[in-house]
Amino acid sequence: MILSKEVVIRHSKGLHARVLAMVVHKVSELEKRHDLKFFIIYKDKKKILATSLMPLVLLKVKQNEKIIVEVHGEDPKEPLDELCDFLQSDFDLEDKSTINQVDNIINNNTITLEHVFSNIPNGIIATDEKDIISIFNEEAERLLGISSGDAIGKKVYEIIEFTNLHEINRTGKSELMVKEIINNRILLINRTPIIIDKKPKGALAVFNDISKLEKVKDELKTVKDLKERLQLILETVQDGICVINSDGYITYVNKAYLRILNEKEGDILNKNIRDVSPEGARIKVLKTGESIIGAISYKENGVIIVSNVNPIIIDGEITGVVSIVKNVTEVQKLSEKLTQVSAKADYLEEELMRTKKPDSAFSKYIGHSGKILDALATTLKAAKTDTTVLIRGESGTGKELIAEGIHFSSKNSKGPFIRVNCAAIPQNLLESELFGYEKGAFTGAIKRKLGKFELAQNGTILLDEIGEMDKSMQAKVLRVIQEKEFQRIGGEETIKINVRIIAATHRNLEEMVKSMEFREDLYYRLNVIPIFLPPLRERKQDIAPLLEHFIDKIGKRINKRITIVTNDAMESLLEYKWPGNIRELENLVERIMALNETEVIELSDLPTYMRKDINTVNNAIKSKNNNEIDMLIEADEILPLKEYEKIIIEKALKKYGSYNAAGKALGLTHKTVAAKARQYGIEKKVTWE
């Protein structure tokens, strides 16, 4: 049961310390006698145990003020009335027995309070209104290195240099959570005024040593920084990392691990490895504590990984496992890519060594004749566009030099210039040369190879002798020209290209289109800008400057000089028909300079078939009479074998009208006869049958 009753304090000094000591004594007797608990409530404040002297003193209850007395227990009414009557009495403070009881209570409470101050783990310093130190506990002695005997009764600012208690006492303003370093200790100090009747009557300082806490704080910050750096490192590395605790649960995976295994963090984190990979290396290492290096595993997403799995051992116990995984597929791809790039670099380096970009793109092409100047004018215009160019001309007229000049004068000049001789590569290998192939595309394809179109990316490709390309390859080249894309042999990836295409041929493509040997659509795609290079026999005024150029070029290489070409030698050179064109002239100069022991080229240095006095033989070569062979046989001069071969093949084709019949008559295959006819420029409108 709980009862309460309001009481008016009648004593002239209110409830001061001695009166309250008597009240505490009375309450103690009543509680002991009736097994009750009494509380006092003042001005709507919290209940205070009626036997607690110091809290009651701090209430500062004055005369005629009201308090409420509350009692808890069985049958509390009479004890409550008895205590209330006692509180409203005059309190006889003269009775010796009462005085002794009061003094004992006050003394016991004072000793208790001092004991609390002495044993509290904080330093406590209290001063009165005159700044005299009244309390200086043991912790304050230890922290400040000052004994209480030297401090109590002295002005606080005379004893303690750093103190600010006298200012707190003067201003009545608190200083809270102040950090100060004293005696190599970090102290956290709270300074507050002691307020009595709304006026400062002293000051109190409570402080404690937080040096260890600060050290721990710094260590925690260091650990936090280290953890953040380690986390950043783990997330940056390209190898996958997976950490498992002692119970087999996955506690950490980095981004690389998720990428390699194509997993999501939420799907794998906190899963038990026994459910994920019950027979894997990580379970074995967790059980045995022995590392497994180089474990290979095949994942469902097709990835092959190599793992190094190591136990985490702390104080001799296995506390987890860390697994480092590497995607072998990625390494293989990088290795193949490196091989491709290396091969491309080697190829381009060879090309660069073979021909460096001239100072002027067409400086290598020698000639001043009208036909050459017309061809070069067209070439210069073509170089300013990215349109497909078709260069026409007999073998040895300099088609490759013109193509090279177009490239180095174009916007693609910084890219590679790639040459492909379609006649020099077997047709069954031409596709792989142009488009490349993937590893395993056919027997012997042990690694990927880049094709010439891919090597020419952002540059120019020259398809020389394109007339020798079979029709199946013509269709594939047409697609590249139209779509600017292709696929490697055995590959599925479509490769986009930015390549300028130049084609060259000595063949009559118009006749080949008519005979259905060359695709008409490809012909029109190639023949956007045609450039015709005349044979040397049609530009005789260029023979002299070409001769001078080759004498200088070859002389520097073999360290020989030619200073004079005799008139009869030059006349013979001018009258010769030059079936091999510029290439034949260059080869002639090299042969003469290699064998000549003087600095003069004379008529006798020329081959007999070039000399001016063999007009009869030359006329015989041109003649269409049936006595041609007889005239050649009876001639005094012996001609090169190819001249006889040319006349014989031409006569056979004229007589039999087909490659097959001519081949049977000559004991040759029809393909050989056709090839020889193309070589000598004597193709006829004949059938293959």
From TrEMBL:
Listed InterPro entries: AAA+_ATPase (IPR003593), AAA_lid_NorR (IPR058031), Homeodomain-like_sf (IPR009057), HPr-like (IPR000032), HPr-like_sf (IPR035895), HTH_TyrR (IPR030828), P-loop_NTPase (IPR027417), PAS (IPR000014)
The keyword Transferase is annotated on this UniProt entry: no
UniProt cross-references to SMART domains, sorted A to Z: AAA, PAS
Sequence ranges assigned to domain PAS in this UniProt record: 109-185, 226-279
Entry's Gene Ontology BP terms: regulation of DNA-templated transcription
Domain spans labelled HPr: 2-94
Keyword NAD: no
GO MF assignments: ATP binding; DNA binding
Domain Sigma-54 factor interaction, first and last residues per copy: 365-594
Coiled coil segments of this chain: none
Keywords (A to Z) from UniProt: Aromatic hydrocarbons catabolism, ATP-binding, DNA-binding, Nucleotide-binding, Transcription, Transcription regulation
Gene3D superfamilies: 1.10.8.60, Homeodomain-like (1.10.10.60), HPr-like (3.30.1340.10), P-loop containing nucleotide triphosphate hydrolases (3.40.50.300), PAS domain (3.30.450.20)
Name of the molecule in the record: HTH-type transcriptional regulatory protein TyrR
